[in-house]
Write a structure and sequence with these properties.
Layout: H1 2-15, H2 23-29, H3 36-48, E1 53-55, E2 58-60, H4 66-92, E3 98-104, H5 105-108, E4 119-124, H6 129-143, E5 153-159, H7 170-178, E6 180-183, H8 185-194, H9 220-228, H10 232-255, E7 267-270, E8 273-276, H11 281-299
Parallel strand pairs: 4-5
Antiparallel strand pairs: 1-2, 3-4, 3-6, 5-8, 7-8
Helix pairs in contact: 1-11, 2-3, 6-10
Length: 308
């Protein structure tokens, strides 16, 4: 029953995103370690009981054949976007003080709808996050002129002073497990090692790939800019840009501005991080997830393991 509970939790989470799973993927996302054969056997039992449904090559909580078509299309579209994303990551790595770039969001899970952005997770040198972020977002403003703003969505920044993600839950653990390393092996390896807590949710986290396929050498422009700002002026500028960004985002929050996906615009501006406010999208996902798990438990009460 413990294995069935773990399996159903996996489906409960990914069902929030209309995302059916293969048996191999269920095995990868389990909170416990077991043989894939055992997972396959328990899934077959759950299908016979009508608690899970086969949708082509995938399995889902819902008996909806359209889920397979949607997932297959999303995977093909994601593979196309990943070619662009990897080139973009190598370009973003050349900005001053950038130490690592990962592909994140729906693209990192190889499932992208027609409106999908290319999201990046950025690691910077300690105490230079806001210089790096400001330069990158000034560049993004230029991409609006040619309609390519969706190719450069730098949503989450941390610096090497604070590599550990503070919000430890199923949402952040899933994002960590699925991040795609793109550039900056040194910074990325230290980052993944600093977040080994995710293995409490996903034991496979310790086996995940932590290195980018290719990291370009830092350009002369990048090296010179870093040398010029490796002093008190750089310290002052980084603090100034953080305070300026915080003031601008406070105005957006007070106005109630929304993103293109209808999510309230909000940004947490710390010395060592820049990230979306977890009280919005992240907390909404967690609330729905635990509600889904409770629903499955109420309909089929003998699930013995406790929710994380």
């Amino acid at each position: 029953m413990q294995l069935q509970s773990s399996i159903l939790k996996v489906f409960a989470y990914f069902d929030l995103f209309n995302y059916p799973l293969s048996v191999e993927e269920v095995h990868y996302y389990l909170e416990t370690t077991t043989e894939e054969y055992s997972v396959r056997k328990e899934i077959e039992i759950l299908i016979k009981e009508g608690r899970l449904f086969r949708t082509g090559q995938y399995v889902s909580l819902r008996n909806d054949p359209a889920l397979e078509e949607r997932r297959n299309w999303g995977r093909a579209h994601a593979d196309t976007l990943l070619l662009i994303a990897n080139k973009g990551a190598r370009f973003l790595y050349q900005f001053p003080f950038v130490r690592g770039v990962c592909i994140s969001g729906s693209l990192s899970k190889r499932c992208a709808d027609e409106k999908a952005d290319i999201d990046y997770f950025i690691i910077t040198r300690a105490d230079r996050l806001w210089i790096a972020r400001t330069l990158m977002h000034l560049f993004k403003k230029l991409t609006f002129l040619i309609g390519r703003q969706h190719r450069y969505c730098m949503n989450y920044y941390i610096d090497e002073e604070a590599l550990e993600i503070k919000e430890k839950n199923i949402f952040t653990a899933t994002e960590l497990l699925t991040l795609m390393p793109a550039s900056g092996n040194g910074g990325l390896t230290r980052f993944f090692n600093a977040n080994d807590w995710a293995s409490a949710w996903y034991p496979q986290y310790r086996n995940r790939n932590r290195a980018a396929a290719m990291t370009p050498k830092s350009s002369l422009v990048k090296r010179c800019a870093e040398w010029l700002l490796d002093n008190r002026i750089g310290n002052y500028l980084d603090d100034y840009l953080r305070n300026l960004t915080a003031r601008r985002w406070k105005i957006k929050e007070e106005r109630g501005d929304l993103t293109m996906r209808g999510i309230k615009m909000s940004l947490q501006c710390g010395k060592h991080y820049s990230r979306p406010n977890p009280e919005h999208f992240q907390q909404n996902v967690l609330h729905r997830y635990y509600g889904k798990v409770r629903e499955l438990t109420a309909v089929h009460p003998p699930i013995s393991s406790e929710m994380k």
